[in-house]
Structures are given as C-alpha cells and as structure tokens.
Amino acid sequence: MDPAEFRRHAHALVDWIATYSEQVERYPVVPRVAPGDVRAALPAHAPALGEPFETVFADFERVLVPALTHWNHPGFLAYFASSASGPGVLGEMLAAVLNQQAMLWKTSPAATELEEVSLGWLRQLVGLPDAFEGVIYDTASMSTLHALAAARERAVPGVRAHGLAAAGRPLAIYCSEHAHSSVDKAAMTLGFGLDSLRKIPADAEYRMRPAALAAAIDADLARGVQPLAVAATIGTTSTTSVDPVNAVAEICAARGVWLHVDAAYAGVAAMVPEVRPLYDGWERADSIVLNPHKWLFTPMDVSVLFCRHMDVLRAAFSLVPDFLKTAEGEAGVRNLMDTGIQLGRRFRSLKLWMVMRDFGVEGMRAVYREHLRLARLFASWVDADARFERVAPVPFSVVCLRLRGAPGQSAADVDALNEQLMDRVNASGEIYLSHTRLDGRFVIRVAIGHYRTERRHVERAWALLQNLSALGSGL
Amino acid sequence: MDPAEFRRHAHALVDWIATYSEQVERYPVVPRVAPGDVRAALPAHAPALGEPFETVFADFERVLVPALTHWNHPGFLAYFASSASGPGVLGEMLAAVLNQQAMLWKTSPAATELEEVSLGWLRQLVGLPDAFEGVIYDTASMSTLHALAAARERAVPGVRAHGLAAAGRPLAIYCSEHAHSSVDKAAMTLGFGLDSLRKIPADAEYRMRPAALAAAIDADLARGVQPLAVAATIGTTSTTSVDPVNAVAEICAARGVWLHVDAAYAGVAAMVPEVRPLYDGWERADSIVLNPHKWLFTPMDVSVLFCRHMDVLRAAFSLVPDFLKTAEGEAGVRNLMDTGIQLGRRFRSLKLWMVMRDFGVEGMRAVYREHLRLARLFASWVDADARFERVAPVPFSVVCLRLRGAPGQSAADVDALNEQLMDRVNASGEIYLSHTRLDGRFVIRVAIGHYRTERRHVERAWALLQNLSALGSGL
User: Fold this and answer.
1) Helices B86-98 and B3-22 sit at what angle, rounded to 10 degrees?
2) Can you list the positions of beta strands (E) in B43-152?
3) A188 and B317: CB-CB below 8 Å?
4) Which DSSP category does B225 fall into?
5) I need a surface site. Which of B24, B57, B227, B369 has the fewest CB within 10 A?
6) ipTM of the assembly?
7) Across the interface, which of B82, B93, B149 has its CB nearest the CB of A101?
C-alpha cells in the first residue's frame, strides 16, 4: 500500500469510524450470528496476491461487522463497560502508526516518560499518596499477577533463584469469595495452586468479613503456613461491593502481609470527592490495580498498577541481557521492561493522557456522577416494583436484581425465569445485560459505565425488563 | 468531544499520520533528548477543565514527537524491527473504535473467529500441520510463559490445585545459552526459579549442542530432577542462529519432554520455501511462538502461540466464574479467556488479517527475500573489509560484526572502540544499530526487518560504519 493509497483509505476509514460512532445504536448490541458463521464466510487460505483494500474492507463490512458485539453501544449494560471515546480512539490511531516499543527508555523516551506523567496525574486525581509509583500493563489480570509476584518476592527470600522451594513451607493468599477470578489465575500461574487460596466468607452485602480474614490468617500461621498476600476488592465484579479495606489493612499491617487492592472497575471513580469514603484505607495498600479501559473512557487495553514497592517488583522481574544494556539504564533511568514479564510495551499512556486532557477532571467527574445517579435511579425503580427484588446495595453504578417468581415456584424455576428474561432483553438488540449468581441464585446485572449511556438507555432497559417479564414464561 | 469534532480531528490526524509515514526519514531515528526532558515539559497535573484537541495535539507535536524513537524509520536496524505498515495501521484504527473485548465468543464473535481464521492462514503459510492450534497473546514473553505453563500442567499432575509442591521433586527447563531472556522470566514467574534453568552450551555458530542437552537431561534424570521442557530457538536474538531443532526434538521425544520453539523473530519467514530447511523439525514441537509484530509488518502488539495441546493449555488456565458462564461456552464454543491468564483480549487479529490480505503471500515473500538478500549483501561487504570481522553466520536478516582493532590493543579497548563506533553511527540520526556480546566481546548488530528498508539504507549503514571507524578513536 503506497502512501497515497494509505491516505485515501485512512480518510475513508475515518468517515466510517465517525459514522459508526454516531450511529452505533442502529446495530443490535449483541450480534445475531451463530458459532461458525464468521469462519464459514471467510476464505480458508490467505490470498496468493495482495488484494485491494476496498475488497478487504468489503469483507470486513459483510462478514465481521454483523458479528461484532457493540461495546460502544450505549445500551451495553453487561459486565463492566469499556468506552472507545473520541480522544481515546485518536490516541490509539497515533499509537498504531508511531509503533513505539517502550522496553527501554532509549527505545521510546516519549512513551516511557508519558507513562510516568500520566500515571502521576491519575494518582493525584484518585487521591493516592506519592509513595505509590505506577506502571501500565495490558489487563487487570496481569496487574494482579505482578502484584502477587512482588508479594512473593518480598515474602520468600531467594524465590527468584530457587523458586517456590525456597519458601520451605506452604504459602497462602486470601481474598473474599467475591474476588475476581484473576486472583485464582495468578495463584495458578505463580505456582501456588488453587489450594493456596483462602476464599474468605462475605457478609450479607457481599463484603469480606474482616474477623474471618484475621481468623484464617492466624489459623494458617498456627499451622506453619506463610500468609503471603490479601487481595481486597473495591467494587467486586458481581455486585461492586466494597471490602472493608481499612480493617483489612489493619490486619495485614499487624501480620506483615502484602495488601493488594483490586479496584479495576471502581478505582478511577475515586476522583469524585463524594464517593471517596468508599476507598477508605486503600492508601494503606501495598499495591492497587485500576483499569482506565473499564471506566475511564479509554479503549482496550490499559490497566494501571500502583505500587508502594516498585523496587520489589523490579527485583522480581528485572533481568537485563547483554543486547538490552544501555548507558541510560546504567545511569538509573527507568526502563519499563524491568517492571514486568513483558519485554514489549505499546504506547498505552498516549490514549490515557489524551482522554484526561480532553475530558478534564471536571468532565470525568461529571460522567461518573451521572452514572452513579442513573444507577441509584434504576435501583429506586426496582425497589418500587413488587415483582422484582434488588439483591445488593448500589455503591457505584451496577444494579443487581431478579424477578421474585410466583409463590411456591421452585428456586430452579425462578432462576430459569430470570435467565429467560435476560435472554429476552438481550434478544431485543437494544440492551445487553449479563448475569451473576449470588447465594446460588441467578441474578441480572445492570452495569452503567459507557460514557454515552444516558437516562433514556437505562429507562429502556427497565421498560424491557418490565414488559418482557409480563409476557409470561415459556417454561 | 462530539461526533463532528471527532470526525474533524480524526481527518486531521490521518493527514499527519500519512505525512509522518511518508517523511519519517526527516526525523533522527533515535531522538536527541535527555532523560527527564519529556517529564519536565509537561504539566504536573491533569487540567481541571477539558482542553481543545488542538491544544493537546500541539503538546504532542512539541513535546512527544521530538522524544520518539522512530521504529518506522527504514534506517532502524536495531534489535528486531517492527513495521507499522499501512494495512496494519488501518486495522488498528478499526480495532480502537470497535473496542472488542473478546473474552467470550459472545462478547465478540468476530474477534474470536477471525483469530481462528487468520491463525489458520498463518499456520498453513509457515508449513505447520493442522495439529497445531493457534492463539494470540500480546508478546512473545507471554506466549513462552503460557507454553511453559502448559508443559508444567502436563508434567505435574495436580499442579493447578496444589501448586509446585505437587511435583515432589525439582523441575528443570533447558535452553541454549543464547536463548531469549523471556525463558528466564517465565522460569521466575512460574515459580521454578532461575536455578531450574539449564543453559546448554552452544557451538561456534551459537547453536545449542544437542549432545550437551541430552547429557544435561540425563544427568538431571539420574539425580531425581524432572525435565520439564526444552526451549529451542530458530533465530536467536543475538545472531539469529538456529538450534538443531530436529535433533533436539529427537531428544525430547525419547524422554517425554515438552519442546517449545522460540521463533518469535524468524518464524514468519518460514513462508519462504527456500529458507524452509532452517525450520527442519519444528513441526515436531509441542509449542511454537512467532511474532507478527516483529517481521510480519503488523504494529505492536501481536504474538502467536501455536500449540499441539491446546487442551492442556486450557486445563492450565480455564476458570469460568458464574458471571462469565454462557450457553455458547457450555456448547463447546471457544472462549479466548480459557486459553490464558488475561481475561481481556483486544481485536489483535484484525490488523494481522488485513496485512496478510493486503500484501498477499507473494508480497510477504518478496519482502522477506529482499531482506535476506540485503543481509547477505551486507555480510559480503563486511567480509571484504579487513578492518572488520563478521562474527556469526547470517541465516536470516541480521549481520553481526565488529572492528578488529589494532594489533596489541586490549580486548577492553577493542570493545570500547566498537561501542564508540556504534554510538557515532547512532548519533548520525540516519541509522540505529544495537549491540550484543558474543564470547564476552562487544558486537554490533545490523538487523534488517522493516518493510520499508531498502538497499540504500543498508548501504548508508555500511558507509557510516566505514567512515566513522576511520575517524580515529577518541579513547
């Protein structure tokens, strides 16, 4: 593709992209395709000769667009939203062509230092002290993995050289029964095994019980198990519950246990002063993960780990082969490859920096306040309808609810009724909801988090839930 | 940023991007900034109110552009190149706005199935049998980590639940002394420790010695150490040497050891029939990593792991919490989150698919053939100049060389002379070279891999090396 062709195609693409962004509500949120449809519609082999971009783009429109799940649709109320905001997309466009690989300061001074600057801004905005240094990874799963590896490095002298055998005794990690599965995956990956995970019971509002945590740690200590780390959550995945981080921090401090806080979803909203009390105690953590690609209007992927002990993280991962030794590295300049598994690092801070500048602090706060307001409003609608029950508090922007079912209906039937209702809502194409299970029961989640989601979208979600539940069950 | 503004800014950005791509040779490859320059030139806090994009972009041009290392510059002959080709950038532009998060088939049927289709194409092109299934990760470090985790899963029953304690005996991983540091990082991360790594000596051409490998494995077996995996390399980082994979595969097969092949750089060039013999035996591997973001003209990041035992990889990592259970998952549809640590997955296959279609098979082969030819040509120039020595064979597109130094000069002085020469070349701004150490000596690498690198660029690199070495040493 010569430069003139590239320019022409890129302008055409921008028009498509801008129109797509404006008109995304024309698409069904969840596509109406069956498994295998995409595969079957595409050639089985790469073409021998290059094809005109128009041909490639025609296939994109014909085969791929109808198979997209529209994460940009303001009716996307499933999981946690991710927003491809204008400045975020512009940042990614530049990052793609600049193609920085910021393994070393020297291989991209711009990406290395902008990461530091933009994470400094974010740290201040969410109210964390400057003892926290930030680093960008791709996903929260990786941020949490690195945090727990740092905890291992601190707790097990010699682990880097001798592996887990250096521990000499079993290790344990603690999190609530509502913690994200990334903690489990980290325990598997790092060689602890799932047995090392203590899932601490939660209270009626799905928050870790500190007394149960203290008892579990003390029981482990008594039988010669080494407590390695506690992962507390601010904004759990199912219900956005908030573990009592201050009490947890107290327990960790008294026992010398690493405290990791998973605030992947909710962390960025700490920039809103009136919800800041929900983060009480997180400043005492050893590490905190928050994901701009969830609720900070940046496209996938960008996850931030703030850590009080970046030296420990570096001790766990730094490894500089001859071919990567530079004068700057020896002079103490930060090389991003030293703080993680991945050597290759995209220019992820660019989109984050552009989003923060484009929205401004008050602009970001305004979106959060609207999402928080819409969630409370939605909760009030649920509370006012006797057919539904709201099954969890709404500290942030997610509402958990279910149909109560008729008197005498079995638990399984009520679950099926709720699943059917969710599927009917999703089949509308206007709204996409996902579910969880709480106390064994099927629960529908309404998660508000896309910057384009307005009152009319959550009203529509509620209308669909009401109307489609009145249709009667096909069970 | 409203849609009309986005459209306007995106068009302006496309013009900047297209001009940048056309005129990248106007920039020095390595920027002339000092550590801290970028940080000092940017505000210390996020703005309270949103700023016009023009202001943000002006700072981008003023502060960041002068601090970019231009990986797109055709004079970038350092490390291994990465090309932001036209179709690759177009693919990333679309991926940014579509913002697919392909954790589940349902959350992006298009991204899930296009990954399968495009990796099927790539697998055929590089001549691997269909027993290999592919999966995309961000970087080779992660591909290798996942491969070794799969090896651990197979070799240590119960490791997922009980951790490394389930092994009951020490484990060992084998690679040549020239293997990439990602193998070391995987050994650290997975809890084996660096002690578990056996760095097998290489021969005079920097290839793993199979007899030494067999002896190391057998010695471990004799003393109760469990051999877990061998990582062989096709295209080592320093010299692009090729381990004797067929002989290594024989040794692994006889002892039931997992064979992982690191072909992160060279793997994609297997689509050129005349170099295919260099890959002899790789089809016997259990897993192979190759990185389209190195030599397949796609921007960072996209790394591919081909694995014969995707079921084992899934067994090591699959973990489906309630909130991610879908009917499709239960019906056997592939969910990408099951094959790795990361839950979040960008739409990385889109750029890869667009690149393969835009170039076509013959187009990709033509670029590889030209790079291979230019490297051989460069090697011939070095061989013809008595002041220089070429210190390694050139199986692919990297030439390793050094100044011989004057008779009687100390080894340290000759090293310093070579480092000075490389720094002088890099200071020119026209060419960027990196180094390695071989047998303790400082060696300059000339790595050809950007799709826009032409004969004139490697001629210029050679002229600079010749002219600047004639300047005399400032030592």
Assistant:
1) 160
2) 76-77, 133-137
3) yes
4) P
5) B369
6) 0.97
7) B82
